[in-house]
Design brief:
Layout (H helix, E strand, L loop, with lengths): L2 H35 L5 H11 L2 E16 L2 E16 L4 E4 L5 E4 L4 E6 L6 E10 L2 E6 L3 H21 L3 H20 L5 E4 L9 E3 L5
Length: 213
């Protein structure tokens, strides 16, 4: 390669490096100006913006168990097919400012409500036991008070088991946080917002919206 060719190659490399440097500087300057134009968002504004779009996050939990419950002379037997709804009231969010421009949002504890699964396979039969000449007899019953007591027992047992399960309610919290994180990411794409577990940061601005009694 001749000296003239080397000089042309070196000149080309210098021009390329200068072009990359100028392009990077322009891009950095534009992004810095764009970031500078972003208004500071307060926890109160975030709280209002979220609840204007979504008041409640509901996560469904399926509960299906074979049951046998005895209450005195009555029993309930069959399959309990219930739906538990883990409800997060977004009007009770905690929005807190952390270090720098980071904002933390924590969900309230959920309220768990139970009901039969719509279109499910809930199938429970109610029986009454009595003593006869040939021993204990069992027959179907429609005694309203007995059926209500047994239904209440089914619901109470299901609620206790759901609350005690190490996965059901915790998983509903994870899914609710993911839904809320997606919402705030769409509302504030340039703001560093983290949806997390219940969290208290000392000496930071806090907003807790509690519905008046």
């Amino acid at each position: 390669m001749t000296l003239k060719s080397w000089l042309r190659l070196v000149q080309g490399l210098i021009v390329l490096v200068l072009a990359l440097g100028i392009g990077g500087y322009i891009l950095y300057t534009c992004r810095s100006r764009e970031a500078a134009r972003q208004p500071e968002v307060t926890p109160q504004e975030i709280q209002m913006e979220i609840t204007e779009r979504l008041r409640l996050i509901t996560q469904r939990i399926t509960y299906r168990r074979q049951i046998y419950i005895r209450d005195g002379a009555y029993s309930a037997e069959g399959v309990a097919d219930l739906a538990a709804y883990s409800k997060f009231d977004l009007e009770r969010l905690k929005v807190q400012r952390g270090a720098g421009d980071t904002i933390y949002i924590s969900l309230p504890e959920p309220q768990v409500e139970l009901g039969q699964t719509p279109g499910g396979s809930h199938s429970v039969k109610y029986y009454e036991y009595s003593q006869g000449l040939w021993g204990t007899r069992r027959r179907a019953t429609s005694d309203r008070r007995a059926v209500k007591r047994l239904d209440d027992s089914i619901m109470s047992r299901a609620w206790r088991e759901i609350q005690a399960d190490p996965q059901l309610v915790p998983q509903s919290k994870v899914e609710a946080r993911e839904r809320l994180q997606s919402l705030v990411r769409a509302l504030y794409p340039h703001q560093h917002i983290i949806v997390t577990e219940e969290l208290l940061l000392p000496g930071v601005e806090t907003r807790t919206n509690i519905t008046p009694q």
